[in-house]
């Protein structure tokens, strides 16, 4: 995990949000590190703001406090891909372009065309519930999401849904996170 006390040095674009700069930038590389960071922030009452590619940060209300930018772009692994089952599992920092490239190699594609570049992260697209004109024919992220692992505000890792469409494991709580801008979990 990389921690920087100088956000402008961590990445040239910086992490300015509504005129505010964080005191620190944290870039976890594993889900366990992410859970640790979020749990520690809860214990110390530190205000964190999840950050993907940053292309849609302006859509949400500005935070009243902004202590730590939680940059998720290092969570960039494709975990599983089962072309025959039409299932792909990725971490939050994987870009839409990367997913589309992997799928294209098998003659598949994800019909998401948000008004954002292909370097938008999957986590960011889900957090903002971003979609484009193809939603009318194929549905949006809500219809394509089968499951999700989420780190809650206290640092607990929870899972909802599964790898199949007919999952009877309970409520589709993962769909609550779509469009929540990381306010319910990361």
UniProtKB/TrEMBL annotation:
InterPro entries: FAD-bd_PCMH, FAD-bd_PCMH-like_sf, FAD-bd_PCMH_sub2, Oxid_FAD_bind_N
Pfam families in the record: FAD_binding_4
Transmembrane segments: none
UniProt xrefs under Gene3D superfamilies: 3.30.465.10
FAD-binding PCMH-type domain boundaries: 18-186
Listed GO MF terms: FAD binding
Protein name: FAD-binding oxidoreductase
Source species: Chloroflexus aggregans
């Amino acid at each position: 995990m990389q921690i920087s006390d100088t956000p402008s040095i961590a990445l040239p674009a910086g992490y300015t949000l509504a005129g505010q700069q964080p005191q620190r930038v944290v870039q976890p590389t594993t889900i366990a590190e992410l859970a640790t960071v979020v749990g520690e922030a809860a214990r110390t009452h530190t205000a964190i703001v999840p950050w993907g590619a940053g292309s849609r940060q302006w859509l949400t209300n500005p935070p009243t406090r902004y202590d730590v930018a939680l940059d998720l772009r290092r969570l960039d692994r494709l975990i599983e891909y089962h072309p025959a089952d039409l299932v792909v599992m990725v971490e939050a920092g994987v870009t839409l372009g990367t997913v589309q490239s992997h799928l294209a190699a098998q003659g598949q594609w994800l019909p998401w065309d948000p008004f954002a570049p292909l370097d938008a992260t999957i986590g960011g697209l889900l957090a903002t519930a971003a979609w484009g004109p193809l939603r009318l024919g194929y549905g949006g992220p809500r219809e394509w999401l089968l499951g999700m692992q989420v780190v809650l505000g206290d640092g607990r890792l929870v899972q909802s849904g599964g790898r199949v469409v007919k999952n009877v494991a309970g409520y589709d709580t993962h769909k609550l996170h779509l469009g929540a801008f990381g306010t319910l979990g990361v």
